[in-house]
């Protein structure tokens, strides 16, 4: 027998209303032009639950008990890198046999999802304290203070770098069709090193580093690019220069050069590339350059400089305007430690006070 179409809520409400005034099922069916077979179920549901809409169905019973779910969540909470195989074996040992798909569905229902682990610099305690010190010191700085900062950094640009991550739509067994492949050579086809800087007003000069850079070469790069960039960006007086804690940057000769030129330097913690907004511009530059498919290193350098100059000042201004969010994030991700320490100190203080009171009473 074919399945009949479910009556709408409006029709069900009319059936109940007509039933309330004393009409019989056949009379109601004739008036509404519907079959009488389902009227009884609708009226019984209304009498029992005072509603005409369908009650949510329970569905299939869960294969994993609440205790099993708690065990899975405990394992994942302690070891986020665990695979579905580990909780699967734990449940099997406890007498519950399920599939990996069920484990995945359970984790997703608890609000978790499988993601690629982010790669971040290795942070030691000294690095963490330095990052928190910077964040707390500058958290309440006005946006005008960050507008005065000229950010700098280096990056490596590979000839076949970002192209290798592109995806293609293809048919089965067509993986090696030339249309579906990205040509590569050993070692990425070569690369160039670039030094660049930017401020809230736009990008500064981009310089190709040839050879191994030491302190003397770094000072030369600054002399040829930093000061001209500051003038072109109209940084004015009191601007601050940012660079990381690479040894060649913090060498005695570099510090003396900066002091001689009366350039203020932003105090910076080690292992903190995520706090430097120029990293966002490097990513933007690599995406732009990849669209041109440079043929050789000279072509790569030319395209890099052209695209660097095309980065809109609005993007630079937006990175600086939202810089406070980076500092807030540093503090937020480490607050749990500070709260735990504070809680522990308060708890120990209460214990000591209790002991002192006990001794006084004795």
UniProtKB/TrEMBL annotation:
Sleeping Beauty transposase HTH domain segment(s): 1-52
GO terms of molecular function: DNA binding
GO biological process, one term: DNA integration
InterPro entries given in the database record: Homeodomain-like_sf, HTH_SB, RNaseH_sf, Tc1-like_DDE_dom, Transposase_5, Transposase_Tc1-like, WH-like_DNA-bd_sf
Segments forming domain Tc1-like transposase DDE: 149-299
Domain of life: Eukaryota
Domain Transposase Tc1-like: 71-140
Pfam families associated with the record: DDE_3, HTH_SB, HTH_Tnp_Tc3_2
Name of protein: Tc1-like transposase DDE domain-containing protein
Species this protein is from: Salmo trutta
């Amino acid at each position: 027998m074919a399945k009949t179409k479910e009556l709408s809520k409006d029709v069900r409400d009319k059936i109940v209303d007509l039933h309330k005034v004393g009409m019989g099922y056949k009379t109601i069916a004739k008036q509404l032009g519907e079959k009488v077979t389902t009227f009884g179920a609708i009226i019984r549901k209304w009498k029992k639950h005072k509603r005409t809409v369908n009650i949510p169905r329970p569905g299939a019973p869960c294969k994993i008990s609440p205790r099993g779910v708690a065990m899975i969540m405990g394992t994942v909470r302690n070891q986020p890198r665990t695979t579905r195989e580990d909780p699967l074996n734990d449940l099997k040992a406890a007498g519950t046999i399920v599939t990996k798909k069920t484990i995945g569905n359970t984790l997703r229902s608890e609000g978790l999802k499988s993601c690629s682990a982010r790669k971040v610099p290795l942070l030691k305690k000294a690095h963490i304290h330095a990052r928190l010190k910077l964040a707390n010191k500058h958290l309440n700085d006005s946006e005008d203070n960050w507008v005065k900062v000229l950010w700098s950094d280096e990056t490596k640009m590979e000839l076949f770098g970002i192209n290798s991550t592109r995806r293609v739509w293809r048919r089965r067994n067509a993986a090696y069709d030339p249309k579906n492949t990205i040509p590569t050579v050993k070692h990425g086809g070569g690369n160039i090193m670039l030094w660049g800087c930017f401020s809230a007003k736009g990008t500064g000069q981009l310089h190709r580093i040839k050879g191994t850079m030491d302190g003397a070469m770094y000072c030369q790069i600054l002399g040829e690019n930093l000061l001209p960039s500051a003038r072109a960006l109209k940084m004015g007086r009191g601007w601050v220069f940012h660079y990381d804690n690479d040894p060649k940057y913090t060498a005695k000769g570099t510090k003396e050069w900066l002091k001689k030129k009366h350039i203020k330097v932003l105090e910076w913690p080690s292992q903190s590339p995520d706090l430097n907004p120029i990293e966002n511009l490097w990513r933007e530059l690599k995406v732009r350059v990849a669209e041109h498919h440079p043929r050789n290193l000279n072509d790569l350098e030319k395209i890099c400089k052209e695209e660097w100059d095309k980065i809109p000042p609005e993007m630079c201004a937006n990175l600086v305007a939202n810089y406070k969010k980076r500092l807030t994030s540093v503090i937020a991700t480490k607050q749990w430690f500070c709260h735990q320490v504070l809680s522990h100190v308060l708890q120990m203080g209460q214990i000591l006070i209790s002991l002192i009171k006990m001794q006084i009473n004795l």
